[in-house]
């Protein structure tokens, strides 16, 4: 170790000692440190063990002083390893005040971040020497950097007196506004009446059995949201893990232009008028900023990385993910349920952090099919676990005509009643639950407002 490195290490040791001594002597300093610091912030093993002991005492609601720390260390046979009671006494003697404890905490956090960045850069360098594709290296590199930057949340906690004026101003602006919605429109009036639109920062689940039309409904949400946007840089983002981009665009042309989707996908002979309508619809869609990522097998960390990048480039107003169970976790998990729970929590955090509504499609358990009552329940969410807890809004799509067709009943008559679809809101953190009726037109893949007779 060079002389310069030795001086640097001595400085870090001194900072660690100052923080620990303040934690032992000052409850206020202790709370500040526990909020911001982790084990890895202490590079000296003795100091790391003492910090872990303080954390343990705090969690167990016990007093923090030399006696309780030494007693805990004795029970674990660690006291001698950290230098005995003499080292703890040295920490106490070193304490002067906690006036500079925040600065010392920030030094430790900054040092850890630099170490983590160094490790990330080393991994990137190793990848560059290997056979990995450059596109994969770029994705992984950005993910590594994002992981480091998102490790900390050191936002200062403030009393509500600092925020309450902003909230009152928003309420006042809403009352003065001619707009009925505070969020992004779904395009379905009765749904918007219940939700006031898809709200910024909300994590939203849309779930249904296969072939019920959940992708079609999500595309309707995307199109209706895009049609409502006013500014050129405002955009809707779709992550499609199930369906390639060209199929989604075909569906959008069908829905936007009221074309028979089957004819668009088959070798049907179009008239000049048909081609004119297709061309006009395509031009309409070109005017809207809808971004589609159809990468299959996307990892949650890759999705978050791409999302953050696009948020920097566009004013993203709505994100749709099709669908949750096709995402894979960033790290290995004990079970698939645990992996889905981690993915759900990550999406919830992204919605809050980026202040964007994220609609994530989800599968339902096959148990629905074994019941006489086919309308979904929250317990039907596949690998539900944390999904119920994390979601701000849970919507289920149910169509009675789907089951009539399966049972061989006639549901082909082109009447509104034969194509009623129900959007069942089973959880709404900030508003009422209930059922919304809409009309599904299968050949267009379109959901329209239900007209009460």
TrEMBL record:
GO CC entries: cytosol; primosome complex
**A GO molecular-function term, please?**
hydrolase activity
Instruction: Identify the keywords attached in UniProt to this record, alphabetized.
Output: ATP-binding, DNA replication, DNA-binding, Helicase, Hydrolase, Isomerase, Nucleotide-binding, Primosome
Catalyzed chemical reaction(s): ATP + H2O = ADP + phosphate + H(+)
Q: Does the keyword ATP-binding apply?
A: yes
Which InterPro entries does the entry link to? AAA+_ATPase, DNA_heli_DnaB-like_N_sf, DNA_helicase_DnaB, DNA_helicase_DnaB-like_C, DNA_helicase_DnaB-like_N, DNA_helicase_N/primase_C, P-loop_NTPase
Q: Which residue range or ranges hold the SF4 helicase domain?
A: 177-453
Entry's EC annotation: 5.6.2.3
UniProt name for this protein: Replicative DNA helicase
* Organism expressing this protein natively: Spiroplasma platyhelix PALS-1
The beginning of the lineage is: Bacteria, Bacillati, Mycoplasmatota, Mollicutes, Entomoplasmatales
